[in-house]
Amino acid sequence: MIKLKNLLGAVKPIEIIGDTDKNILSLESDSRKVGRDSMFVAVRGVTTDGHKYIPVVASAHVGAIVCEELPASLAQGITYIRVADSADALGRLAAEWYGNPSRKLKLVGVTGTNGKTTTATLLYEMARLEGYKAGLLSTVCNYIDTTAVPATHTTPDPLSLNSLLARMVEAGCDYAFMEVSSHAAAQHRIAGLHFAGGIFSNLTRDHLDYHHTVENYMNAKKSFFDMLPADAFALVNADDKAGAYMIQNTRARKYTYSLRTDADFRGRIVETRLDGTLLMLNSHEVEVQFTGKFNAYNLTAVYGAAILTGFDPEEVLVNMSRLVPVAGRFQTFRSASGVTAIVDYAHTPDALINVLDTIREIVGAGGEITTVVGCGGNRDHGKRPMMAHEAAMRSDHLVLTSDNPRDEEPEEIIRQMKEGLSPAEMRHTICITDRHEAIRAAIQAAKPGSVVLVAGKGHEPYQEVAGVRHHFDDREQVTAALAELS
């Protein structure tokens, strides 16, 4: 229970109608959850506008309603607060409601197209190796110290987000690391949070079904750095042309990391294998359990961010070798017969290029690569032919299959992917709609010494077909198929 007038200090109302000296029992943005003396925030969402539910919540005798437009008739006993942006107000009110937990933690956010999950998760693991309690908010799973909390979104809604951060504070966490998606930044889900640091990984085409243009997508990510305070750090990839743009207007202290040029934190691959890499970090050699240039970038970012967060540089170097890959990110499986399968979350053209180029570098021109890949339904249609083309160019055999078709016909998604293939590429491509059969067929046909990449779903334990989620885990499918070879 909080006095309304105390909550309102978090926002800048344009207009207040009614009494502010009243108790608020709950803060809600879902009209179905309101009760007597709740505060309801009417947010304009992607599929629905909370303003249309104002008459419904008014009949539930809520204490206050926050909105951008006042209703035609005002109910007695309810305080109306008009704001410029109710989504932004919700984030700030949520932070205030939960006691501003982000100010009681060192909170570091990671944004970019690829690498967010790996970077945030490894920083969480690094903090724990350093002996601290820490929290994690990620696509794969959220953690409150060692307690796992299932993740439903890359970045939760403001109320869930601040609730999780408050639980981290209660658990005695010193640090928290989180992925900051472009959706979350655009929808002000992180409004009201105080970040100790921000990291930018890279920018390639993704989520254009929502942002419509690459410029909008890029600006959504930039807005995260624009909001960083002066006492925070901003660490960006100097090798990505969007890196400098991200920190153009930030007040935070600016740092860079790179594999190609001079930077505050410099990484260099000395030697690479399917099960690890010898990496040079600011002139220090360290053996890591990760493979590929994309992981070298992630690890260089982790190295830099760990030091900027305040961890001892020498201990950070030691602990780099103790970090292990994140579930579904270049996760390697092998059969007794010598076939290697790799499960990776790569679901953008650039991510697929990075993974396949890494595999080719290791296996050489003589090694065979088979790629099993699909594209998600109800998402960016434009990347479908691009995904197929990039996979075909870098694979000896390509199997197009279903990903999460959601509400679309899987065969239609595959047809659109095939539009990106030349006649020559079609000759080493087959289409198997059933993902289970596609994975099994690819592994059954693989020769000893060859690699099968199963891309797109990574850690996900489900497949969404016709709007229904069924249990499906690429890692389980791969393990079963490899066992048949033994």
Topology (SSEs and partners):
Blueprint: E1 2-3, H1 4-7, E2 15-17, E3 23-24, E4 26-28, E5 38-41, H2 54-58, E6 64-67, E7 79-82, H3 86-97, E8 106-111, H4 116-129, E9 134-137, E10 141-144, E11 147-150, H5 158-170, E12 175-179, H6 182-186, E13 197-200, H7 208-211, H8 214-226, E14 233-237, H9 243-246, E15 253-258, E16 265-273, E17 276-281, E18 284-288, H10 293-309, H11 313-320, E19 331-334, E20 340-344, H12 349-363, E21 369-373, H13 383-393, E22 397-400, H14 410-418, H15 423-426, E23 429-431, H16 435-445, E24 451-455, E25 462-465, E26 468-471, H17 474-485
Parallel strand pairs: 4-5, 5-6, 6-7, 8-12, 8-13, 9-12, 13-14, 14-15, 15-16, 20-24, 21-22, 21-24, 22-23
Antiparallel strand pairs: 1-3, 2-7, 9-10, 10-11, 16-17, 17-18, 19-20, 25-26
Helix pairs in contact: 3-5, 4-10, 10-11, 12-13, 13-14, 16-17
Structural class: alpha/beta
Cα gyration radius (Å): 24 Å
Could you list the spans in which at least 5 consecutive residues all have pLDDT below 50?
A: none
Q: Please give the largest β-sheet.
A: 11 strands, mixed
Strand order in the sheet with the most strands = 11-10-9-12-8-13-14-15-16-17-18
Task: Give the overall form.
Answer: globular
Helix content percent band: 25-40%
Name the assembly state. Answer: single chain
- The overall pLDDT, averaged over residues, is 93
Ends apart, CA distance between termini = 62 Å
